[in-house]
Write a structure and sequence with these properties.
Blueprint: H1 13-16, H2 29-39, H3 45-62, H4 73-89, H5 95-105, H6 116-126, H7 138-150, H8 157-172, E1 175-179, H9 186-198, E2 208-212, H10 219-223, E3 224-226, E4 233-235, H11 237-246, E5 253-258, H12 263-266, H13 270-273, E6 278-280, E7 286-288, E8 293-298, H14 307-310, E9 314-317, H15 324-336, H16 354-378, H17 387-401, H18 410-426, H19 438-449, E10 464-467, E11 472-475, H20 501-515, E12 519-523, H21 530-539, E13 546-552, H22 559-567, E14 571-574, E15 577-579, E16 585-591, E17 615-618, H23 629-632, E18 635-639, H24 645-656
Parallel strand pairs: 1-8, 1-9, 2-5, 5-8, 12-17, 12-18, 13-16, 16-17
Antiparallel strand pairs: 3-4, 6-7, 10-11, 14-15
Amino acid sequence: MNPGYLGRSALPEGLKALFRPITVMVPDLVLICENFLMAQGFEEAQILASKFYGLYNLLKDLLSKQMHYDWGLRAVKAVLYVAGGFKMIEPTANEQALLMRALRDFNIPKIIKEDEVVFYGLLSDLFPGLNPPRKVDPAFEEYVNEACVQMGLDPDEVFRLKVTQLEELVAIRHCNFMMGPNMSGKSTCWQALVKARTLEPGQPRLTYVHDISAKVMLTQDLYGYTSLATREWQDGVLSKILRDLNQMDDKPKWIMLDGDLDANWIESMNSVMDDNKILTLPSNERIPLMPNMKMIFEIRDLKYATPATVSRAGILYISTDDGTQWRSCINSWLAGHAPTSVCDSESKVRKLTEEQKGWLRACFDRYCATTLRWLKINTINVVPQEDTNRVAQLLFMMDGLLNDKNLESAETVEQLFCFCCVWAMGSGLTVADDGTDYRKMFSDWWRNEFKIVKFPPRDTVFEYWLNPDEHVFDQWTKSPYFFSIDYHSTTPMGSVTVPTPETCSVTFWMAMLLKMRRAIMLCGPAGTGKTQMLKGLLTSQDPEEVIYQPINFSFYTTSDVCYTNMCAPLEKKMGVTFGPPGNRRLVYFLDDVNLPEVDAYGTQRAIELCRQQMVACMNPTAGSFLINPRLQRWFATFAIGLPGPVSLMTIYQTVGTAF
C-alpha cells in the first residue's frame, strides 16, 4: 500500500495491528542498471550505470517540479529496454552513444520547453563530445507527412516529431499519457498516427480506436458494480469494451480515455497499467489486456494522479510555447483554400488564387504574432484563451466575410483582415474588477501600432462596422443589425430585445457564426443581457430550418440531467442514429454553463458531455468562475459588459414610449 496518496485512506488501527509492518527500501538503481546493461551485452555496464543514475538523480533535483515527471524504477526500466534494443541492432556501435541516444530520445517527449536547456546541458556534461543522431525511419516519416496532407493538416516539423514520438512510445509501453494545454494538437496527433499506419504498403496496420470519456460517468458505471436490489453484477462500460475487444481479431486496438483524471477512476486502472496488464473487477473477474491492445490517456494534466499512476505510463507532452499550433492552423487554412485542394470533396470553401493567398499571408505575418504577444503581456481576458483559440476565431470570421468584392485588391483584403483581427483578438476583453478597461487599452495600442488601415479616431476600434459596399468603417448604428422597435405595454418586457450599439455588434458576429455552425460563448456579469441577446437571436431564426433547446444549468445539474435535456428534442432516425425532427438544425443553448458543482478534483461532470459545438452563456463571477479549458476551446468568446449611457438611454426611451 502507498500511505498518504491522493484518493487512498489509511487502514484502521484495529486492522493495522493484525499485520506486521515491513518498510520497503529504495532500490539500488546503480546495481539494477548495471545488471540490466550487462544482460543486454554492454561491456561498459559499470560506467554507464553510474552515468545513468547520476543523470536521473540530477534531473530529479534540477528540473522544475512537474506532475508528469517520473525518475523512478519503471522509467529506468523503459529506457534500459530501449538501450538494449539499440545494442541488438548496432552491436559494434559506441556504447556510450547508444545509451545517450536512448536517454535523450525517450525522455525529451515529456520534458517541457523551459527544462530542455538543463536536460541537454546535463547530457552533454555526462557524455562529452557525443551527439548521436536520432534514430529515424525515413519510410515512416514519409507516411506521417502523407497522412498530414490527406487530413488537411500542416505537416509541421514539430508536429511530425510528436507523431513519431508517440509511435515510439506505443512500441515500448502499453499505456501512455498524452498531455498538454487545450488546442495543443493531442487528438490530431494520435489521429495522424492512426492514418499514417494505414498508408504502410504490404500489411498496413489498421488500428481500431475506441474512444471513451471516463469522467462523464460514475466510477461504478465505468468498471461495473453489484446491484444492491438484485445482487446481480452490472457490467461497466470499460469492462464490456475490454472483454469485447479480446474476442476480436489480433489487429492493433487502442482504447482512448479522453478527459480529466481523478483518483477515483484512474487508481482502479493500476493493475492494467503495470506489467500485470489485467483489469480486476469487484466481481473477481480478471480481463487481460492483450499484446495487440494499448491504452492511451488524452488528458490536460496529472494534477490529481498519484506517483504510482504516473510511473506506470509513458508520457508525451505537447507544448504550445513555440506557437507552432496557431501557425499551423493558418497554413492549413490557406492550403484548404487553394485552387486545388485535397479537401475539395469534403468541404465547401472559397478557393483563393495564389495572389490572394499572398495578400492574406502578408496580413497574418504582419499582425498575428505581434498582437498575440502584446495581449499575453498586457491584458487579462474575461476567461482564459489560448493563442490558437484566438487565431481559430479569426479564421472563422474570415471564412464568414470573404467574398469576391473584398478580395479585389490587397487594400480591401487588409481592411477586412484588420476588422476581423480586432474582434477575434479583443472580443474577450472587458473592464476588469480594478476598473482597468482592457478594450480601450487594446484599441489605443492597435491605433498606435498599425497605421496602414486607419479606424476613425473617435471611440474604440470596436465601435465601428466595416461597410461591405463602400469599404469604409461606419458606426454600428448604421449597420443593418441596428434598428428601432415598437414596444407595447401588453408585451412581456422579458421577451423584448432592444438593439443597442453594443448588442448589434455582438449579434452581427453571432448570426454569422451560428450560420456557419460554430460555437459561441457570451461571458459577463449578471444583468448585462447575455441570455436575452441569445434568445433574441435564436427566436429570430426560421423554425423550419433551425430549432434550439435551452438547458439551464444549476449547482445540482448532473451529467444524467444534462443528457436527458440534450436528448429531449431528438427523434430516432435509424438504428442508433438520432437527430432533430426533419431536416432542421438543432442548437443547444446552455445558460449558466459554469454553475454545476465542482467536485474534489476540480472538474464538473455535467459539462463533460458538452464538449461539442453549441451556444452558451456564463457569468465568470459566479459558480466555478471558469469551465474546463478543453470545453472552452470550442467557443468563439465574446465579453459582454454593462451597457453605456447611450445604450441605456436607447433602452429607456424604447420602453418608456409604451406608457
